[in-house]
Amino acid sequence: MPDFVETRDTESTLNEQGATSFEQILPAHSAAIYREFQAGRVIVRDVWDNNRSELRANPPLYNLLYNHLSHFRTFYEHLGSDLVFNETGAFFFLKESSDDESEEHDENAFRVQVVLLLIGRYFARSGRDLDYLGGRPEAGLNEPDLANLGADEEYQDILRAARFEKGLSEALDYLEKRNLLFRSGGAGRYFLSSAGSYFLHQLVQEYEQS
User: Fold this and answer.
1) pLDDT average, residue stretch 190-195
2) Prediction pTM value
């Protein structure tokens, strides 16, 4: 009988903790975060504000994840995913458990890697440091860069192999929709977000070590 009481007390405590955790977060906010991750996006601290033409810090969803990280990690763990917080780049992303990774997830990751490596390869060949690809609107790819990339048949073949049939514009949109790339000054300039820069440097490091 004492064991039964102890078990009930433990379950009651856990239920109270869980209820408290969920009560602190509005369902609409939790659903908004879920939709972002389901769309393959990362949630970054610094996002580009087209209206103000500047990087804006601490958007609401980022703050919610940051302030309730333990809750959301447990929540997504129960859904078979790992919520990863990258402190260096100040962003969150969802990583599927290795046993559960789908073909769609693998393809999306592959396409992102192709575009990031292509941009990095072009930038390095032009004699510029990869650090100047992101982090600020005056960095990244300018109009001449976009024209050169679009005219290079080798790069276009690589993009078509990754199923970007419309070429560079489709590839850049793919990254932009996932918050890995921002567009500033209309269509004239693109620069990597903190997440895009981080993933590119990781890919380069893996390539150099292979």
Assistant:
1) 96
2) 0.84
